[in-house]
Amino acid sequence: MLKQLQMGLRAFMLLASRVWTCICFLIKKKVRALVQHQPVKYQIYPLSPLSRHRLSLVKRKVLVLDLDETLIHSHHEGVVRQTVKPGTPPDFVLKVTIERHPVRFFVHKRPHVDFFLDIVSQWYELVVFTASMEIYGAAVADKLDNNRGILRRRYYRQHCTPDLGSYTKDLSAISVDLANVFILDNSPGAYRAYPDNAIPIKSWFSDPMDTALLNLLPMLDALRFTQDVRSVLSRNLHLHRLW
């Protein structure tokens, strides 16, 4: 009788533990969704006639976007040292085949990335340029685009230049007119040949309170009116050393 009672108690405790784990997972997922996807406002007011005229005098510019640690962070199965706190649910999971081996990537979106893309796609032509393999980078870009057609142009690892154990990105391959193209990237090495055409951003891994993308919107709103982005971005070269 006592043995049966002990076995029943163990079974109950095991079930209770699993239920509690499930509840904690759902609560974390809900809280993360509320924090990362809370309503964000960046008022876009109609341009005045003078502003519309000024904008008509300059070319529409190209904003080049890095993926990993700039817009998203991911890790795959088998990673020993995860940079994301265990138990944090991913925003989406990718299943890709690399060298005939199926790999699952757990992808976390930087806070406010969807809102950011919605806004800047109205101001710029967007181009994805990642040093990741195409099979992975294309899948991530598809998820971020979400059938909106705002991330059509894409460049991958094969379009990068190997340099000192890393990869650099040739912006002239995207546009020969360097006055009207610039990159947002967390890695200064990626744009070392084009420091006057770059906006640095701190690498993101898991901070749910990060607002780096939101903080860039006022500057990006103004930058589209310039004749040459380098006239502005070259004044902030000291920022590249911060990251």
Automatic annotation (TrEMBL):
Name the job this protein performs: Serine/threonine protein phosphatase that may dephosphorylate and activate lipin-like phosphatases. Lipins are phosphatidate phosphatases that catalyze the conversion of phosphatidic acid to diacylglycerol and control the metabolism of fatty acids at different levels. May indirectly modulate the lipid composition of nuclear and/or endoplasmic reticulum membranes and be required for proper nuclear membrane morphology and/or dynamics. May also indirectly regulate the production of lipid droplets and triacylglycerol.
Q: Which NCBIfam families match?
A: HIF-SF_euk
Cellular location(s): Membrane
Q: Which UniProt keywords apply?
A: Hydrolase, Membrane, Protein phosphatase, Transmembrane, Transmembrane helix
The EC code for this enzyme is 3.1.3.16
UniProt name for this protein: CTD nuclear envelope phosphatase 1 homolog
Under the heading SUPFAM superfamilies, the entry gives: HAD-like
Q: Which family does it belong to?
A: Belongs to the Dullard family.
One cellular component (GO) term of this entry: membrane
SMART domains from the UniProt entry: CPDc
- Native species: Graphocephala atropunctata
A GO MF term:
protein serine/threonine phosphatase activity
**Where in the sequence is the signal peptide annotated?**
none
PROSITE patterns named among the record's database cross-references: FCP1 (PS50969)
Q: Which reaction does it catalyse?
A: O-phospho-L-threonyl-[protein] + H2O = L-threonyl-[protein] + phosphate; O-phospho-L-seryl-[protein] + H2O = L-seryl-[protein] + phosphate
GO terms (BP aspect): membrane biogenesis; nuclear membrane organization
How does the protein associate with the membrane? Single-pass membrane protein
All residue ranges annotated as the FCP1 homology domain in the record: 56-223
Kindly report the protein's main subcellular placement as a broad class: membrane
Xref: Pfam families: NIF
Looking up Gene3D superfamilies in the UniProt record yields: HAD superfamily/HAD-like (3.40.50.1000)
Top-level taxon: Eukaryota
